[in-house]
Amino acid sequence: MSSMTEPPKQSFRLSQLIYDTRYRSMTIQVIAAILIALGFAWLLNNTIQNLEALGKDFRFGFLNNQAGYDINQRLIDYNSQSTHLRAAIVGMLNTLLVAVLGCITATILGVFAGVLRLSKNWVVSNLMAIYVEGFRNVPLLLWIILIFAVMTESMPQPRDFRGDEPVASMALGDSVAVTNRGIYIPRLGFENSLGASGAEHQAAVDAAVADGTEVPPPPSSWADWLVLAGVLGASIFAARVVTKRADVTQQATGIRPTTWYIRLGLIVIPTAIALFALGATIVQPYLKGFNFTEGVHLRNSLIALWFALSLYTGAFIAEIVRAGIMAVSKGQSEAAFALGMRPNWTMNLIILPQAMRVIIPPLISQYLNLTKNSSLAIAVGYMDVRATLGGITINQTGRELEGMLLMALFYLVLSLLISGAMNVYNASTKLEER
Amino acid sequence: MSDLHAHSTSYVRQSMLPETDPPTAETGVIKWLRENLFSSWLNAVLTFISLYVLYLVVSAILPWLLNSVWNAGSLSECREILAARGLTGHDGACFGVIKDRWHQLMFGFYPPELYWRPILSFIIFLLAVMPVLFQSIPRQTLILTALSPFVLVWLIWGGSLWLPLLIALGFVLGFVAYRMLEGVNGILASLGAIIVPILFWFYALGPLAETLSSIIPLEIRSIKSSDIGGFFLAIIIGVAGIVLSLPLGILLALGRQSDLFILSKFSVIFIEVIRGVPLIVWLLTASLLLNYFLPPGTNFDLTLRVIIMVTLFSSAYIAEVVRGGLAALPKGQYEAGDALGLDYTKSMRLIVLPQALKISIPGIVNSFIGLFKDTTLVLFIGLLDPIGFTNAIRASTDWNGVYWELFLFVGVVFFIFCFSMGRYSLYLEKKLQREHR
Amino acid sequence: MKNTVILGAMTVAGLVAGTAHADTLGDVTDRGSLNCGVTTGLVGFAAPDANGVWTGFDVGVCRAVAAAVLGDSNAVNFVPTTGQTRFTALASGEIDMLARNTTWTFSRDTDLAFEFVGVNYYDGQGFMIPSELGVSSAKELDGATVCIQTGTTTELNLADFFRTNNISYEPVPIETNAEAQQQYLAGACDVYTTDASGLAATRATFENPGDHVLLPEIISKEPLGPLVRHGDNEWGDIVRWTLNALISAEELGVTSANVGELAGAAGDNPEINRLLGTEGELGSYIGLDADWAARAIGVGGNYGELFEDNIGENTPIGLARGLNAQWTDGGLLYSPPFR
């Protein structure tokens, strides 16, 4: 208290470091910094000593060694001769895939369930309440296991599709096969595929025609999809330009020119031309040997994980949406009704946009949770980054420290990216407060 | 004019008619159905879809449940019983497995003659959290709450009572040191409150415990952590994780809010790193890597390692919850503390934290529910939690092949726990909202 | 200072289990119990029963070592480990030995720095397939969906086999045997591959075992055995010779029934005498007393008895001895002499 009554005239004394509020925060920080640094040094020192004792070193060279194991779901080329690094990347892509798919469906599910839970329909609202409470209060792990088991037990086996009077048959005009190994859906193949795959395909077709054997189905390469996406993107941009100009005309003259057919044409025609030029054909899955081949195989593990993550996170999102809607004051919907809006218009145009501000921040953390929870892939054998890099690779090479570090880093970067991106969005939709 | 009209028309009724029932479409079941189920086309369609889904689920599960067998010592025996009723193995549930392995699913390998210890500790725990959860209970009981962890640890793991008592004494010594040095200087007091107990635990505790237990041996049979399993393990990990992470979480939240650059940045980094990485990676770290980070030769039991990791993990989440509580407090409260001339520690301890923590309790309960569900992940590092036990049970020759019954049981128990806690936290949230208005 | 503080706190909590790895025997005797790593559950090899007592073939080895070292077959602390955590648990000293049907390979022995003390089960990777598919050789499996248990050598063998035979397959990795069994029975995979013993054991528990066949190909050698850490040869010797004692006992006709009688007094057969400590002092060479082997055999009997009780033909698992018969019966079990 003495520092308050008499102004500090005298020169600096050591005791001021503790007693003087001006220096005290400095002292605390320096002590804290030293303690934190000491703690880290201690951990590091232990690690070095332990590694030495075990005769191990800390290097990432093992990533260039041959992996030796196969991965069923791979978004990039991979075989058992590839490196551990490539296996890790395959795993990371699989994690990203299920996380993105999960976030999309969880949002859709959550919004529906949240809105329906507020419905006046007694059966619907209670069913939604059961869904939400059921999924929120039981561990996700259990749901993943159960959904996986339900899929394998209740769907037909591929061999049930065989024979003159098959037990099961393909859905949607013989194009989709739902089996207990996953769902096979048709894919797009390109007769004039770009890049190396196109040339290979031509050679294979020529050889097949010469031998009189079955013609192989057309391939698809990344280049094809890039071209398609580019064309579609450019068309959409052009369509937007047309809309903008229509807006300008409307502003100037008060008459809105009819543009929908121009926009439709702008989007459809170039894409159709691109598809035709690439020789796009729909390749349907068909039964061959033990399994269906061709088409896209959505494996059971992916579907179970995807469903479970979506349903589980969807239940949380439903609660967030419900809270968000209830946070919008009742006067808003009454005002909308007074203006003669229909209930679904009121929801879409008045309530949801306002509820969004309340909904977005907790939604971010749900997306983060979903991404992190995708590591439960371990329960169904989905080959995500934990299964490849953090599982088999660590197990085969004995490089726990390096492997775990890389994996933790991957998840950390992913989480920071998601929260960063969503924060940007959050800032852009923030209410301008006066 | 109406008068005239009344006189000119002789058939106007003179007496009131008795009230008639509203039209059938506006009463009872039909009205309810119409308003609640079929108010519009969309609603009607939704109703039918919902009823159909409900029918599908119920018709698939109900017969299986109704035909369940409760008295069977093995799966084959259960199948025989079902076969005797003319049913196949898929037509009825074999809940005999739950009956047979009930104790394992609940307590793990805890010695059967000592089951009273987990049960008693659970009761003590419930009693101890009462004062925290319900504000109407006298505040003095909080002292008993503070003492309960030591008793609980002793009850569960056994051994000498003196150890937990002396550890508790360390905290008391720290408090005494704080009080004595408080008059001298705030920082010195805080330092003293940290250093005195550490010195006491490190130097005085071992010999003291030995002497005391040689004079009055207060010992009960000690239990290995590996004997603890099932729901008991899940509860221990969940509760220990939350209780131990509270102090750390509060410190992190204060650190994140503080003006001190290094402390706040460190807190932010710690919280973000912990929250950015999935729990399963942290658990694998506890199982695979913790030994690298500790002095060579240190090695302690996996359950404890998991509890440490879970504590660190949940402290980041608790920190965010407490931060929410701190932020929700009106600024006037902080300013009031400053105006009264309280220093930082005092204003936090006497004014800010008691209020902020009270607001945070629903959030803390919610984090507990999340953590409790996440304890199932310890299965992947070889601890036998309820789901871990489903694997171990299915590996015995008696019950190899049993599936849904175990998972259903585990799911239902988890649901009961989490749902009731969720309801409580909802009730509390509502109550706090009322009080604030 | 922080170092000592945390250590101190840990000691206070009374939860510091093992310390330095150099003297495992000393640690075990001080502790009064053996920490033995087993699976979280595999039919016939290790699983807890309704009373929480672990039983199984691998468990028998743990109990024999505990009996030899501590004189009490129940002084074992069974530590369930997963495929992923087992090696770290051993390397870090959390367990003293690992008896978890682990394949003896070059890299595990050298790079991971473990010491395999012998083989308690000669196994090989096989395939099981429903007989209705009419497959008679693994080479006909082109395009098949294969269930494998992850975290084992199995997936590497499988990749090698299909690659060298130039046929394709779809791997379905599964964490546990129980899960894989459920997937296979539901037809989510055409083939289930794991160690042949595991396949036979799994098949034995099916409702209709006859509907499934094991394919003739055994695509790998899987010598399964207990292992310890590198660098503590005394401890390695104890585990190795306990296992050898069990194997020798069968060869010499020492069983749990007659071991008490044979160990009581020296008999005619000098090797039995040396094994059971009635002649010479072999026990003292490995730091144990004279009748260590008699105790180890007394727990669950000799190797043959352990086999018959846990996984043999009279159990639901019903494995034949096959390669695991004594060398005198045409098998591979061949214990070095006790001399």
Describe the structure.
- The complex is a heterotrimer of chains A (434), B (437) and C (339).
- Chain A is mainly alpha-helical and 434 residues long.
- Chain A has helices spanning 2-5, 16-19, 21-54, 84-117, 122-136, 140-154, 171-174, 195-211, 222-253, 260-278, 300-327, 330-338, 343-373, 385-397, 400-428; strands at 177-179, 182-185, 187-190, 280-283, 286-288, 291-293, 296-299.
- Chain A has three domains: 2-54; 84-186 and 284-428, MetI-like (MetI-like fold), CATH 1.10.3720.10; 195-283, no CATH class.
- The relative contact order of chain A is 0.13.
- With 437 residues, chain B is mainly α.
- Chain B has three domains: 19-62, no CATH class; 101-110 and 224-436, MetI-like fold; 159-220, no CATH class.
- In chain B, 73% of the residues lie in helices and 1% in strands.
- A two-stranded antiparallel ribbon of chain B has the order 1-2.
- In chain B, α10 (230-257) packs antiparallel against α15 and α14 (331-339) runs antiparallel to α15 (344-374).
- Chain C is an alpha/beta fold and 339 residues long.
- Chain C has two domains: 22-122 and 223-329, D-Maltodextrin-Binding Protein, domain 2, CATH 3.40.190; 125-220, Periplasmic binding protein-like II (D-Maltodextrin-Binding Protein, domain 2, 3-Layer(aba) Sandwich).
- Chain C is 38% helix and 19% strand.
- Chain C has 14 helices and 13 strands.
- In chain C, strands 1, 4, 5, 6, 7 and 13 form a six-stranded mixed β-sheet that branches.
- The chains are: A mainly alpha (434), B mainly alpha (437), C alpha/beta (339).
- Chains A and B meet through α3, α5, α6, α13 and α14 of A and α2, α3, α11, α12 and α15 of B.
Task: Specify the number of helices of chain A.
Answer: 15
CATH topology of the largest domain in chain A, by name, is MetI-like fold
Helix and strand composition category of chain C: alpha/beta
CATH C-level class of the largest domain in chain C is Alpha Beta
Write a brief caption for the model.
The complex is a heterotrimer of chains A (434), B (437) and C (339). Chain B is an all-alpha fold.
Which key features would you list for this structure?
heterotrimer; A: 434 residues; mainly alpha; MetI-like fold; 3 domains; 3-stranded antiparallel beta sheet; two-stranded antiparallel ribbon; 7 strands; 66% helix; B: 437 residues; two-stranded antiparallel sheet
